[in-house]
Amino acid sequence: MSKITALKKTFKGNSTSSGKKKLKADIEQLESELKIKHEDEIRRYNILYGDKDNEASKSVHTGESDGEEKGNHSDGGNSTKDELEADEDKGKAKGKGKGRGKGSKSDVPKVETSKQDDIEANINLSGLSLYKNTGGGFTSKSQQRKMKKQKKMEEMMLEAEKEALDMPNYEELESAAIKNTLKQDNLRMYEIKADGHCLYSAISYVLKAEKNKEYSVSELRRIAGDYIRDNMNDFAPFMDIDMDDEQAFLEHIDEIKYTALWGGQIEITALSQALGIEIHIYSASNDYYSSGAGGYKCTVLKIGEGSERGTTESGEAVKLSFHKHAYGLGEHYNAVLRNQ
């Protein structure tokens, strides 16, 4: 049986068709020999015990005597069977009458079948696939791979969750750095809805609150788009558009004016120049390490500084805050106002 186990391992690792055929033949040969040996053991067992059971059965139904039945199997008085049965009777006498009654297990030899079961359970030569006994049934190789992959994925997810717990909260660090700087400048943040129009909504809100000047979001988009179109040579080099493709440039202008396309520094610069105002952007970055706010430091980008009109009528620039980590969808702008 150990040879069969070894051949199965070789069969599993062999990738060639001819090699598998030879191994299959060797395994079948060994199993055939094992089967013959097993049948021989059963035959010997029947010689010792099986015929006696048949005798008892026949004597009940036909009234045949033990002597008559034994006579059918005698070989001149020198039968090995008779000698074995005589030894068995002596053993019974020594056991004080404790015979091999019906259902008794005392005289049934223990046959080790675990290895034989493994041979039959672990290999399926007709399908050329291996199986593993899991105690509750059989699991195919593909199922085992799937279970192993699932377990690995669960381990990876658990590890990712552990790492996430150890990572800093960038949203909180960024917000804390900006708010600390605003507090020092006697300023406060006003939350703007994240809908793709946040830049124009924030500027509109500050202009109304600080300058008492009303511009709708659609008006600010139109002003920015028209100004960029009229000054194409100044803006096109900084846009992700082929300068020779005028049609693509005009289509982008229409997106700025009529869709929820997110606005950035190009649109801020266009509004600053078109409206003649300064626009200050407060943002936090961990590129500049400091002792406060977990390594984040707030900086101020001033766009349109030194322009003809420079500030709002109240003497203040339009102020916004820029956030990279506030929302999962991307960057965002909020309005910044003076504390009353």
Tell me about this structure.
By secondary structure, the protein is of the alpha+beta class. It folds into three domains: 2-123, no CATH class; 134-167; 170-338, Cathepsin B, Chain A. Helices cover 54% and strands 14% of the residues. It is built from twelve helices and eight strands. The protein has helices spanning 2-13, 17-62, 66-71, 80-94, 114-122, 141-166, 170-184, 198-211, 217-230, 232-235, 246-258, 265-275, and strands at residues 123-124, 129-133, 138-140, 187-190, 279-285, 297-303, 318-327, 330-338. The strands form two sheets. A five-stranded mixed sheet has the order 4-8-7-5-6. Strands 1-2-3 form a three-stranded antiparallel sheet. Helix 9 runs antiparallel to helix 11 (246-258) and helix 9 packs across helix 12 (265-275). It is elongated, with a radius of gyration of 46 Å. It starts with a helix and ends with a strand.
